């Protein structure tokens, strides 16, 4: 009986700790937002519909970019996993 209680307590602690740690996709999104803010952009997600929060498909998400830089005409090029900003 004591082993069962110890097992339940340990599994509860492991579950709580794993719930508090960010997932791989949240780390990638936060890194992308951090890089964009370093470039002077402000990313604001715009959810459409009732269940948009539960949808993980990034093709269905709409983001607004607020340009806080002095670039009048800028373009992003996707190179593998990076977005490269350049002004023609």
Description:
By secondary structure, the protein is an alpha+beta fold. It has one domain. 39% of the residues lie in helices and 25% in strands. The protein has two helices and four strands; from the N terminus they run ααββββ. It has helices at 2-20, 24-38, and strands spanning 41-46, 62-67, 75-79, 82-86. Strands 1-2 form a two-stranded antiparallel sheet. Strands 3-4 form a two-stranded antiparallel ribbon. A hairpin with a 2-residue loop joins strand 3 and strand 4. The model has no long low-confidence stretch (mean pLDDT 73).
If you compute it from the alpha carbons, what radius of gyration comes out, rounded to the nearest whole angstrom? 20 Å
Q: What is the H/E string?
A: HHEEEE
User: Average pLDDT across residues?
Assistant: 73
Helix fraction bin? 25-40%
Number of domains: 1
Largest sheet: 2 strands, antiparallel
Structural class: alpha+beta
- Strand segment count: 4
Number of helices: 2
Global geometry: rod-shaped
Cα distance, first to last residue?
71 Å
The unreliable regions are none
| Spatial order of the strands forming the largest sheet | 1-2
Approximately how much beta-strand content do the residues carry?
Answer: 25-35%
């Amino acid at each position: 009986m004591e082993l069962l209680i110890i097992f339940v307590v340990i599994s509860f602690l492991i579950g709580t700790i794993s719930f508090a740690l960010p997932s791989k996709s949240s780390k990638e999104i936060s890194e992308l937002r951090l890089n964009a803010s370093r470039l002077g952009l402000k990313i604001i997600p715009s959810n459409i519909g009732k269940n948009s929060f539960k949808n993980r498909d990034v093709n269905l998400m709409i983001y607004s970019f607020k340009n806080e830089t002095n670039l009048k005409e800028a373009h992003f090029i996707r190179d593998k996993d990076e977005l490269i900003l350049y002004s023609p």
